[in-house]
Amino acid sequence: MTLDQASAADLAPAGYDPFGLRNLAREPGLDNLGGVEALWYTPVSSFRSWPLAGELALAHLDLVPGAVWYQLVSTRGTVSYEQTRKPLGRHGELFAHKLKGVLPRHSAALAAGLETMESGRFVALYRDLNGQVQLVGTPTEPLSFQDAYSAGSQTARNNYDWQLLGQTVRRARPYAGTWAVSGRGLEGEGLVLQPGAGGAVELRSAEGRLLATVPAGRTVVLRSGFKLSYQII
Hints:
Blueprint: H1 8-11, E1 36-43, E2 70-71, E3 80-87, E4 93-104, H2 108-115, E5 122-128, E6 133-136, E7 144-150, E8 159-168, E9 173-174, E10 191-195, E11 200-205, E12 210-215, E13 219-223, E14 227-231
Antiparallel strand pairs: 1-2, 1-5, 3-4, 4-8, 5-6, 6-9, 7-8, 10-11, 11-12, 13-14
């Protein structure tokens, strides 16, 4: 009898390890899009605890009451993520993480926001264009923020190049839970994004009237006297 003819029960050893080896296969029929759609960050002080062991994927985070995430809204198409291995010889290896992107212009509000991140230690959360969400960094292995500014020229744009960098023992952790996003910095906006049920977002007017409930990553068109389109990120 060959392996492909044997049943899973015949092959499963005593004391089966749910964290052990398994088949690695491509998910059929799904698009594979490159790039990062949206990025959030929070200081390590937001966490009460962190699961060091167990499955890689997480569905819940233990945050202190009132903890929120802050969105880093960059120039469209500039945000990327890299995870590489860093050999440590006899001591094993680490995973090196790099999130980077571009923030346009040099406004007073942006400069003040960047200053709050100086010497900070962060955990980041990003969603790629395939809809997969990953946690990068941990409270004990945090990410640090760096930026470099250029005023540009008549042929080059005025912007900040930013990076979130860090090293962890385990790779980035897939995340299937929810997260609360701060509204600070959005006070002048006419619409407010609020968490909804099942990974959705509630789109409300400035008066709090519910306009639509939209799954994250989808586009909604609101029709009134004007035609408006919003990308929910």
